[in-house]
Write a structure and sequence with these properties.
Elements lengths: L7 E6 L22 E7 L20 E4 L5 E5 L2 E7 L3 E4 L2
Antiparallel strand pairs: 1-2, 1-5, 2-3, 3-6, 4-5
């Protein structure tokens, strides 16, 4: 397992649907990268600019909205994951 450093978050993308709204099966090359992910683990945090302790807004197992091409892709135990700064997460879903 990878433990992110500082204010970074390890995410697992939620797979895109393989069938369009019209019922057409989409090949992998035509599917967009998913915009939603699940938080797998958090870094240890750090200090804000004013010296106060950084507290994460997201928690493990939160479903979040992410930028289409944000973060860094990594492979953990054969599965694709994404590491990004918490500040790059757009919002919590649900």
């Amino acid at each position: 397992m990878i433990t992110p450093l500082g204010q970074r978050v390890l995410l697992k993308r939620i797979e895109a649907e393989e069938v369009s709204a019209g019922g057409i099966v989409l090949p992998d090359s035509a599917q967009e990268k998913p915009h939603e992910a699940i938080v797998v683990s958090l870094g240890k945090g750090g200090k804000n600019e004013d010296g106060s302790a950084f507290e994460f807004t997201v928690a493990v197992n939160d479903k979040v909205l992410i930028a289409k091409y944000g973060g860094t892709d990594v492979t953990v135990n054969g599965e694709e994951h994404l590491i990004m700064s918490e500040s790059d997460i757009l919002g919590i879903v649900g």
